[in-house]
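In this supplementary section we document a worked example of the pipeline. Step one takes a protein sequence of length 140 as its only input; no multiple sequence alignment statistics are reported here. Step two produces a three-dimensional model, which step three serialises into structure tokens for compact storage. The input and output of this example are shown verbatim.
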Amino acid sequence: MYLFTLVIPFLLIAAVVIFIIVMAKKGAFRSKTTPQITMRNGEVSILATHVVWMQKKVYLNKYRIPHGVLDITNQRVVYTQTSGDKVDFALEKADIEAAIHTAGIRVNIQAKDGMVYALNTMPVKDTLDALEQMGVPVQR
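The serialised model returned by step three reads:
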């Protein structure tokens, strides 16, 4: 009986580790996706990633939180909503003041008109690197 109590937890841990390895190899933990926008002439996609746009400070219904795809190209940043409240935004590179990593998984894109777009994204480094490659000032 003592051997049985030692073997079962070990087998469970081994199964979880194998599951994580298999899913990681299949790319299940990546946030990258296919671009949701139509490219303009001369426009090149840098990153398309899943994000959550925290448009409001408080959401009473979790199903209304806007989930979508953030497309970062060499010319613009475009958010396309896929679920939740119907909201979208597009910013040309010239309209972006800075990108700021505030804490954890939050990236704020500050427009020159004063509007701040608070996005939760993972991994944050990929999004900040793409914005930096685009030519936006990034504060890490």
